[in-house]
């Protein structure tokens, strides 16, 4: 009698494993998630530069901290996409999670005015000011938070997909 494959392993029909990745194509899945994270980080970086250089918005203290987390990501992720290197998650994921925490803090500070006393910002550029206010609730920190969450989610998928790849097919460091 033939043993059936466990649900997390590839089966004859090619259906996805329990984490949603087709086991027969983990390399393509890794590259796709890395590419999506790179495009998101590039769009967020260019958007941040547009707001400050073209529209003249002066970044506050928390915006600078978010930039510190975001600006290295397009370079790191671009190199990782080019070399198909899933090992970048070790370095990029902490930046994305740290940036998301800072963006969440700033967004909550804008929604709840009492938090402004807890997180001091420079009086000339308060963290509650926002050059972009769309539809009454979309602000720059929310867009930043969304970008960081998308990047972190993509990098988490890369990390999970990389576990499915056999050691021999992984790029060497």
Helix and strand topology:
Layout: H1 26-54, H2 61-70, H3 72-83, H4 89-111, E1 133-134, E2 138-139, H5 140-164
Antiparallel strand pairs: 1-2
Describe the structure.
The chain is elongated. The chain has 173 residues and is mainly α. The protein is built from 5 helices and 2 strands, in the order H-H-H-H-E-E-H. It has a two-stranded antiparallel ribbon with strand order 1-2. Helix 1 packs antiparallel against helix 3. Its main location: membrane. Belongs to the DsbB family. BdbC subfamily. The chain crosses the membrane at residues 33-58, 134-155. Residues 1-23 are annotated as: Disordered.
- In angstroms, what is the radius of gyration? 20 Å
Briefly, what CATH class?
Mainly Alpha
Taken as a percent bin, the fraction of beta residues is under 5%
Shape category: elongated
Helix count from the secondary structure assignment: 5
> For the largest beta sheet, what order do the strands appear in spatially?
1-2
- For the terminal residues, how far apart are their CA atoms? 42 Å
Return the CATH architecture: Up-down Bundle
Q: What is the count of distinct domains?
A: 1
Family: Belongs to the DsbB family. BdbC subfamily.
GO biological process, one term: protein folding
Organism: Alicyclobacillus cellulosilyticus
Protein name: Disulfide bond formation protein DsbB
């Amino acid at each position: 009698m033939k043993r059936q494959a466990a649900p997390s392993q590839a089966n004859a029909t090619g259906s996805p494993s329990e984490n949603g990745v087709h086991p027969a194509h983990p390399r393509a899945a890794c590259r796709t998630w890395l590419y999506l994270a790179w495009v998101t980080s590039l769009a967020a970086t260019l958007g941040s530069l547009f707001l400050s250089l073209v529209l003249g918005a002066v970044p506050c203290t928390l915006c600078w901290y978010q930039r510190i987390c975001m600006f290295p990501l397009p370079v790191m992720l671009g190199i990782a996409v080019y070399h198909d290197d899933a090992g970048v998650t070790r370095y990029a994921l902490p930046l994305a999670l740290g940036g998301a925490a800072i963006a969440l803090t700033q967004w909550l500070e804008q929604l709840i005015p009492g938090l402004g006393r807890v997180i001091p910002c420079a009086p000339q550029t308060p963290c509650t000011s926002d050059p972009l206010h769309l539809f009454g609730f979309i602000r720059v920190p929310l867009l930043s938070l969304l970008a960081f969450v998308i990047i972190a989610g993509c990098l988490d998928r890369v990390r999970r997909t990389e576990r499915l790849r056999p050691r021999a097919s992984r790029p060497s460091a």
